[in-house]
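Appendix B. Raw example, untouched.
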Amino acid sequence: MRTRSSTAHDQDFTEFTEASYASLLRTARLLTGDRHAAEDLVQAALVKVYLHWGRSGSWVSPQAYARKVVVNLYATWRRRRWHTETAHPGGEGAVAADGRDMAGGVEARLELARALGALPRAQRAVVVLRFYEDLSVEETADLLGCSPGTVKSRTNRALERLRAAGALAGYAGRGR
């Protein structure tokens, strides 16, 4: 039988999950390159967060903690058999029946997604956290458990690979 505090605990976690799921899924999607793998990753991360939810009052930010769990799980998923599965081409970002590009610039985004998928896990995580999540070098280093110098070198190597692959050509002059 559930107690009042257990029910409140579950309600707090449910509210947190509803508020943060979309953000966590976007991050996981960029990390994995596949929506279904991203959903699995977020679900596994939320299970881990739930198991430690009793300590959430001491966390600076439950959202930041959950994002760290997602990134850490992603880093260790290479040991799982299904990590080598790839998404079927043409799933997301499909073109309308009349040939119009419904998403606008979908080819450039697909090319960038393919290039991100070719990066080693550590470089991909740094690129996602630095440029998608807009974290500083220090925040990224803290989240990944490495030095700021490591973040900078991984970022530099990743951007070199993305430039060499031509994946950043459609993004010249945008943002940073």
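End of appendix B.
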